[in-house]
Amino acid sequence: MRVLVTGLGTFWGSRLAQQLEQRDDVEIVVGLDTTEPRLPLERTEFVKADSSYSILARIVRATEVDTVLHTHLLVDSTQASGRALHEINVIGTMNLLAAAGTAGSTVRKVVVKSSALVYGANFQDPCVFSEDMDRTRAARTPVERSLLESARFFRDFAQDNPHITVTKLRFSNVLGDDIDTVFSRALHMPVIPEVLGFDPRLQFTHEDDVTGALLYATTHDVPGIYNVAGDGQIPWSEVCAVVGKRRIPLPPLLTNWAVEPLRIARVLDLPPEMLALLRYGRVVDNHRFKRAGYRYRYSTIGTVDAFARGMRLERSVGDSHPSYRYERDVESFFRHSPAVIHEP
Amino acid sequence: MRLSRGVPERSDRPVPDPVPDRPGAGRPEPRAPWAPPPGVTAPASPEQEAAAEPDLGLSPDSATATGRSLVPLATSTESREELDLEPPDAELRRSDVDAWGRSERARALARSLYDPLYRYWFRAEWEGLENIPTDGGALLVSNHAGAIPSDAPVIMHGIEVELQRAVYGLAENLFRALPVIGTLWSRAGGVPAHPDNAYRLLHDERRLVLLFPEGAKGTGKHYRDRYQLRRFGRGGFVEIAMRAGVPIVPIAVVGAEESMPIVFKSKRLAKLFGIPYFPVTANTLLFGPAGLVTYLPAKFKLRVLPPVHLDAEPDQERYSRSRVMEESEKIRDQIQVALYDMLRARRSVWFG
Q: Are the beta carbons of A287 and A223 closer than 8 angstroms?
């Protein structure tokens, strides 16, 4: 298997590349991103690219990859402007699929990491979303719009290229020790925001299940769209109880304006899609991916428990993760210098 | 790990009947899962006395008349085909808020608060309770009335107390958008009326689901139109029952119309507030603003009609529209006939 990973500079991409490197059936791993990898990698080749991947077609031709792992869809709208979201999610996806689908392309499998954000969160929603349901209200935030637009590209791509296995995973909110999400930031606050009078049901996916699910889709043939979320659901009030913190209510009216001072003061940025979740919540049906053979390591409650344990450890010992900085010369020395002895 | 706020672990498991730890309370023998209906509400059975105590369902032994756990959780997953993939329930939820946002503790509290109203204000009287299946899913369908409908809580409360089966009430999604009210409504067993929600409740979890096909057209009608059934939507409820493969149980309710009659409707104000109807009720004329929450003490009579088994293959992509409309019309007729029959027998609005 010759694998191309996009978004190597993100948590998802780096973690996934680490796991792929350990597999014997993976010949090469090529990683692509605008930023450098966050975790030490053994044999992954990192290529620095612009955000819309205009050089992708050349890389695909040159390396003859057969599997493309598209982890670089931004879902955290606090990390990028609306314009950047469009560039990365829409234009990036377009270029990626164009490169994978050109005549003579060796690509046989595309796995995408998308988000349950595409379902939105609205009071008219069904209590459980399954994969073939549509959202009940048109998307208004840039991140949701860009994800929906990229979803259209994937649908067309899968139709036009029946010989390529296209798997799309829609992850619900991710929590874990290493990953930084809107939810983990909110839970790290001394008091946790809630919308007054609402106690939504939420679902969480553990970061290990994120890499686990992506790896599973890479190594198995599971075409189609799948929701990925820990079993069960949990009310927001209970999440706060598990991490052992008080809640502070936000006004139910004009909530978007009420959180603006927090954003300006750089205390906490709660994007509109997060506020909608704190109001109506979202639960997705994860049975299809289970039927496809994937076994979750964490349930929703297990994810929150694990996260709370990680937070307690952090309170005692601080951020214990060894920091890593990518140095181009060092990395290329270890990979390509004749002086380095590679184990067979 | 224990929650900091003292959520009892797995309070919703069907526990063996606890030993009465307050000898004075006179805990009654728990009613059999299915007891023949007490044709009329016999005044002051021991159960009612227990319910009349100022026991708000908060103390751990509040499993008195109304506080029994109603949700047999074991059934919720058994009907799924991939039972082996389903982790044990204890790993999926720690509090008693279920997948629908319903909390048995909140429901028990609501029941103990509502019970006096049910017994002494509306004096609800059932007939034909044996028509409600004691297990398996069924779609309960009823006429709808009262500016702020009083029939839904009476039906849910009645069935839960008499039959010890949980009832999920489907209602307008708009509830969910309201702070506090939406959360309370959901904890007390309200579910947004979405076809997929109904299907999952009926088919996957085999629950009793209550639905009012008239919707706001029923509650928003003028007092002079009382007991005249409105259109039964587009027959969606028949389609849901066909798809889920469950029977429809029609219920005719007399009394809700008089508990909060609409004497005047303002189209202009309704438009202004963006709500389906803006009613002026007899209650607000009599009691002022307190009339918004005060019902008139109309006598409630409820008749459960024999279940309608729809002869249709479940889980179809679509069903014949004419067949659906035909069944819907038949059920509407049945309820209308039953209503007229009950009204013929009624001597007094207040005393039945």
A: no
Q: What is the average per-residue pLDDT within B114-133?
A: 94
Q: Give the helix ranges, DSSP H, for chain A.
A: 11-21, 56-63, 82-85, 92-101, 142-160, 182-187, 207-219, 236-243, 255-258, 260-264, 272-280, 287-291, 300-317, 328-336
If you average pLDDT over every residue of chain B, what do you get?
Answer: 78
B183, B202, B204: best mutation site toward chain A, by most A Cβ within 10 Å? B183
**Chain B residues within an 8 Å CB radius of A308:** 1
| Cβ contact B81:B203 at 8 Å | no
Outline where DSSP puts E strands in chain B: 125-127, 138-142, 167-171, 190-192, 208-211, 248-254, 262-265, 279-281, 301-304
Count of beta carbons in the 10 Å neighbourhood of residue B315: 10
- Is pLDDT at B327 greater than 90 in this prediction? yes
What percentage of chain A's residues is helix, strand, coil (to nearest 5)?
Answer: 40, 15, 45
Length, in residues, of chain B: 352
Summarised one tens digit per residue, pLDDT across range B67-123 is 444 544 433 333 444 445 555 566 667 778 888 989 989 999 999 999 999 999 999
Close Cβ partners of B36 (under 8 Å, ≥ 6 residues apart): B130
Are the beta carbons of A123 and B192 separated by less than 8 Å?
yes
Of B182, B102, B173, B183, give the one whose Cα is nearest residue A233. B102
Q: How far apart are CA A6 and CA A72, in angstroms?
A: 6
What residues in A contact B97, CB-CB < 8 Å? Answer: 201, 235, 238
Interface touch A231/B177, C-beta < 8 Å? no
**What confidence tens digit (pLDDT) does each residue in A231-272 have?**
999 999 999 999 999 999 999 988 888 888 888 888 888 899
State the complex-level ipTM: 0.85
* A144 in Cβ contact with A117 (< 8 Å): yes
Give me Rg for the CA atoms of chain A.
20
Nearest neighbour of A198 by CB, restricted to B179, B194, B196: B179
Cα distance from N-terminal residue to C-terminal residue, chain A = 18
Please check whether residue B178 touches A, CB under 8 A. Answer: yes
The confidence score (pLDDT) of residue A320 equals 59
Task: Say yes or no for a CB contact (<8 Å) between A123 and B174.
Answer: yes
Helix axes A207-219, A11-21, angle to 10 degrees: 50
Q: Which of B345, B141, B170, B157 is nearest to B253 (CA)?
A: B141
pLDDT for the residue numbered A322: 60
Residues in chain A closer than 8 A to B96 (CB atoms): none
Look up tokens 């090469």; give the residue. A28
Does the pTM surpass 0.90? The reply is: no
Task: Classify the C-alpha dihedral B308-B314-B317-B319 as positive or negative.
Answer: negative
Question: Which of A87-101, B170-184, B220-234, B322-336 is most confident?
Answer: B322-336
Residues A123, B1: C-beta atoms closer than 8 Å: no
Q: What are the structure tokens assigned to A221, written together?
A: 């043939």
Which 68-127 residues of chain A touch chain B by CB within 8 A? 123-127
Inform me whether the C-beta atom of residue B83 falls under 8 Å from chain A C-beta atoms. Answer: no
Q: What angle separates helix A142-160 from helix A92-101, to the nearest 10 degrees?
A: 10
Question: Which of B11, B12, B97 is the best substitution to test chain A (most A C-beta atoms within 10 A)?
Answer: B97
A251 touches chain B (CB under 8 A): no
Average pLDDT over residues A296-303: 93
